[in-house]
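Help needed: design a sequence for this.
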């Protein structure tokens, strides 16, 4: 049974393994270089310092996915807008884990009184686009050929979910 819970420092190696696999094998992350445990630790500490949650999906005491929200942009007026990230271990995709993780991030953003969530998704990633649309995200931008990975240009879609009418 999949359990969604707050991530801890003890989960970082497993999160790192998932993230690095995504870097190497997918266009979900526009990165080339693998991350280190030190980088993942600093990322986690920054999330905690800024008050943003990190969730993990756990199956039989193993991390099979993780999600988070963070600043959409760093300028002050964007303080009620966040960007979400959802990553699932390759052999566990298509089992509803991403949906559980996305729901946790939406709930957290609502509790934090955020106004909107933005998702940046490879335009060819139908699984992620479909999942976000199921939660009410709508496409608001389409950027042509903004990433280059695996010897091809990648288009990027921004999807947006409005979550709170008032933020103050």
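Sure. Designed sequence:
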């Amino acid at each position: 049974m999949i359990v969604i819970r707050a991530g801890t420092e003890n989960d970082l190696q497993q999160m790192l393994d998932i993230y690095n696999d995504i870097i190497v094998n997918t266009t979900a992350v526009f990165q080339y270089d693998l991350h280190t445990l030190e980088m993942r630790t600093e990322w986690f500490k920054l999330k905690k310092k800024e008050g943003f949650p990190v969730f993990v999906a756990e199956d039989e005491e193993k991390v099979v996915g993780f999600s988070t929200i963070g600043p959409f942009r760093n300028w002050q007026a964007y303080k009620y807008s966040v960007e979400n990230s959802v990553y699932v271990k390759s052999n566990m995709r298509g089992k509803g884990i991403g949906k559980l993780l996305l729901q946790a991030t939406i709930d957290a953003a609502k509790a934090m009184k955020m106004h909107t969530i933005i998702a940046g998704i490879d335009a060819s990633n139908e699984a992620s686009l479909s999942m976000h649309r199921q939660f009410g995200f709508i496409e608001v931008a389409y950027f042509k050929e903004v990433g280059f990975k695996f010897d091809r240009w990648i288009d990027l879609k921004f999807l947006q979910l409005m979550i709170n009418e008032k933020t103050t």
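The mean pLDDT is 96.
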